[in-house]
Amino acid sequence: MAQSVSALHQVQQLPRPSRAVTPGGGRRHGIGFALIAFAFLTAMAFSTVPTPLYPLYMAEDGFSTFMVTVVFATYAVGVIISLVLAGHLSDQFGRKKLLLPAIGLELAAAVLFLTSTSLPVLLVARLVTGLGVGMVTATATAHLHDLHTAHRPGASAQRFELVSTAANIGGLGVGPLVAGVLAQWVTGPLRTPYLVFAALLLASAVAVALTPETVEKPRTRPAYRPQRISVDHGDRAGFSAAAAAGFASFAVFGLFTSVAPGFVAGSLHHPSRALAGLIVFVVFGAAATAQSLTARLSTAAKRTLGLVAQLVGVVTLVAGMRTGDLTAFLVGGVVAGIGAGVLFKASVGTVAALAAPAQRSEALAGLFLISYLGLTLPAVGIGVATRSFSAVTVMTWFAAALLVLLATVAALARRRPADAG
Question: Which PROSITE patterns does UniProt cross-reference here (predicted)?
Fold first, then answer.
């Protein structure tokens, strides 16, 4: 994810105002808002479709847990590349000119998934998915902001924030739920979910095509440059705390979108694909809900809540694995998801406040880059470790390392002035 949380997989830059909004009346923009929300949710959901299916791939082609994490890491690499090279271009060329190719990439990935279950094809399909998601997240978020503003001039941004969070982080949870249910009760578990989402992606492309553009076409084509990335904004402790918190939050998201379904099937002896999808859904659903419900809290309060919830959740999750208690594992996952969602939102708020307006996108790009390393590196590390040690032992180590990281975030945050909001 999110990725996703965005994400969650919540990978999104603060949207900039459009230079112009096309004429057509508020009603068209209101309908467009709903259409883009649908396309956004579908694109993010597709990115996590393989999550509950990984154990089936492992049985089909003899994959190890390590190779599952490599496949997952390939997706994260695709997202990072896309965010840096293309995620910011809709401000110049238009939202639809980025969204349509992005959805096209995801549709191409769906076709690849349908052609083969072999490792090389999976790697390419996940890379292509990541490239599409990196283009979708920032662009769809900005498009929703534009459409909301055009539809309801002067209104509160609350609707935009709720819908964009639900589509982004919530979508990351919907994908595994739908895929898990289909894999459990419909024939062709490694084909049917992709057929369903291929149809939804086609519908999403139509939805984007019908939506008003909200960025004026530039009179002269601006020179291309990648997204600038910056990590130094005058408050090293503040940025370091936010970056470490982003890394920790995405480590939890990465755990549930890569190896957690395998742990449920193996260590906890519950092989149901529907159950695996449901677990991921409730974790990301909890993250999205918590982000929405804590919108009015100060950044410092969000950070404190996120740290405590993530700590309690991860400890409970590992306790569930050690005792073979599925309920404890699920409760721990939900609480950890709440913590990760709120903590990452606090990180975005901290970095946005630290950076000067002209450098805000560069600062957030730096935060997202570090966060995506959190999505990738711990998951791969878990995969490597499970080749020599039991899943329960490896998860205990993961929890210990994460708790050290959370303590570091708290210590760094105490070294800077209290956040105002």
Answer: MFS
